[in-house]
Amino acid sequence: MEEQLDNERVEKIAFVLKTVAHPMRVGIIDLLNRNEKMSVNDITVYLGLEQSLTSHHLANLKMKGVLGSKRSGKNIFYFLKMKEVPQIIKILEDVKVNVF
């Protein structure tokens, strides 16, 4: 007999996947996975984005609980709060899908 679908678990999984489902957000997560914390300016320079666009993605990731932030003087430093998200991205990288 099949077990009943756990809607809450499925919703949480979909929420995380939707939150990170953007190339720039994946890049930010990858960058913060390799660096303990980074400022908006550092992330902007490294990814070659406009600061307003970087700030938009950072705010979205923070609001949804993937990232955290800490102010130090005039700078805000971001760090990974959901440590499991880079593992999810790595698994997806390893999937061999011919979509292009």
Question: What descriptive keywords fit this protein?
Answer:
3-stranded antiparallel β-sheet, 5 helices, globular, 57% helix, alpha+beta
Account of the protein in words:
The chain has 100 residues and is an alpha+beta fold. 57% of the residues lie in helices and 14% in strands. The chain has five helices and three strands; from the N terminus they run H-H-E-H-H-E-E-H. The protein has helices at residues 7-20, 23-34, 40-47, 51-63, 85-94; strands at 38-39, 67-72, 75-80. It has a three-stranded antiparallel β-sheet. A hairpin with a 2-residue loop joins strand 2 (67-72) and strand 3 (75-80). The longest helix is centred in the N-terminal third of the chain and has 14 residues, at 7-20. The chain is globular. The chain starts with 6 loop residues before the first helix and ends in a 6-residue tail after the last helix.
